[in-house]
Amino acid sequence: xxxxxxxxxxxxxxxxxxxxxxxxxxxxxxxxxxxxxxxxxxxxxxxxxxxxxxxxxxxxxxxxxxxxxxxxxxxxxxxxxxxxxxxxxxxxxxxxxxxxxxxxxxxxxxxxxxxxxxxxxxxxxxxxxxxxxxxxxxxxxxxxxxxxxxxxxxxxxxxxxxxxxxxxxxxxxxxxxxxxxxxxxxxxxxxxxxxxxxxxxxxxxxxxxxxxxxxxxxxxxxxxxxxxxxxxxxxxxxxxxxxxxxxxxxxxxxxxxxxxxxxxxxxxxxxxxxxxxxxxxxxxxxxxxxxx
Length: 292
Prior knowledge:
Blueprint: H1 5-22, H2 26-35, H3 47-52, H4 57-68, H5 72-82, H6 88-104, H7 107-123, E1 125-127, E2 133-135, H8 139-160, H9 167-184, H10 193-202, H11 211-221, H12 231-244, H13 247-252, H14 259-281
Antiparallel strand pairs: 1-2
């Protein structure tokens, strides 16, 4: 059967993206998550499923990482234990596997994945840039990581998805994202958009710009571990992620902080780049239909 050059390009791009995000064994992992029969927490109609399955997760993930860097204890954990410089794609793949398992996988698989992450968290501890002790299993620190991810993923979907969530669906997304967070150790995760923003605002006094955060932001935005030919596409996605940050967060990271710049330049770039990712990923047949 003849395959057009455009389809070949689409498939190649989609395969390359999937390999970066989910690893070389992405197809096998996908089969485990999607094709294992059993009860699931969510269905394809649920807001959390729609958000986490969309290409807007790419800029949303960049935004979440940048936001998380502003908490000195979270940043210390990333700098000291994640190996983000030596193995940046490995860290991304572990995160994407966790999100996929807890959103699309069976309840049994989701609970097992959460248990594995909890065990890792118990071993991650140290001191932040100010000499204060931290541990990854601290419920307060887990809350920060969860809130930074939830607000970033939701903002990305609302800004770049073809069909944004309604207000009621957005509240449902926050509540559904809190299911796995609660089992991971977050105490009383937010259950609505208003609660999510209130918790985020409550963290503001704890946030600091550290040298480690500035270094990590430079690595993520200016020196990504990619071939030069791939960097323009990545930078377009990253621009969409930066656009999602509040001006105060961009200012703390020494990034362009003008809301006008975000609306007039960065968001359109993010919208176009996300559409490109969505097109490429559509060329990869991963049979994303859960088994009964």
